[in-house]
Design a protein that fits this description.
single chain, about 280 residues, alpha/beta, 8-stranded parallel β-barrel, 11 helices, 8 strands
Length: about 280
Amino acid sequence: MKLKQRLQEFTRNKRGLLATNFYNLETLQGVLAAAKEMQEPIILQLTQSSIDYMGLETAVKLGRSGLEQFGVDGHIHLDHGGSIELVQRCLDAGFDSVMIDGSELPFGENIKITKEVVERAKAYGAHVEAELGFVAKLGQDHGGGFTQPGEAKTFVEETGVDALAIAIGTAHGFYKEEPKLKLDLLDEIAAVTPATLVLHGSSGVSHEQVQAAISRGICKVNLATEIKNIFMKTLQKELRDNEEIDLRKVFPKATAQITGLVKEKLTMVKNNSDVATVH
């Protein structure tokens, strides 16, 4: 099933689709083991940093072969593409979906760059995501810049983009205190645009709030920081006062922790309970 159709179907059914970043073989295997056990589809995401680290061809082949090996129904997505050049490279490499992130550009420039990516993606049958509003990145102040419903409506109409990451109170990275999502704002945005709505920065947000957001229009839920954190914290603990030099004995323990985390998140996004009253 094409990603666009899957996201539309999941939105209608008020359930989410988890999108997880991976950074190497071990983090990929941890994610895919969870998806296989839960028999759930998943989106595998790569940022420019991960592409630079692994190499584009290696990263894509790793993702594709992993999906095949584990028997998981999934898609490969460029997360936070910062340029048309990078997007084009990923389209040529066979990505199912690409994100062009012009959220820090003026509104008109964001529309322009997104529209060009949408046009380029048509020839590949690829899904396109954009971002509107301010979802703070690592090192940035978490405040300000919520997505406005009127701008979201205009943006989607002008660009033809398939999915829109919106700012309703989340940020990338961990939070000093748990955020409170603006669910009433989400309702307003969902009412005026047919685009799939995306929640970035889900790490550290309560399951209850994420499920409430899904019940009110969010479909794609991104997960990255918690994956890196649990992998590295587990390794740090295992290697403390440990003279083991065989990484093949150490890494699997950290990989298993990712599997446990992703299983919890996959259960969360299925959202079969009525939690729409959370505020």
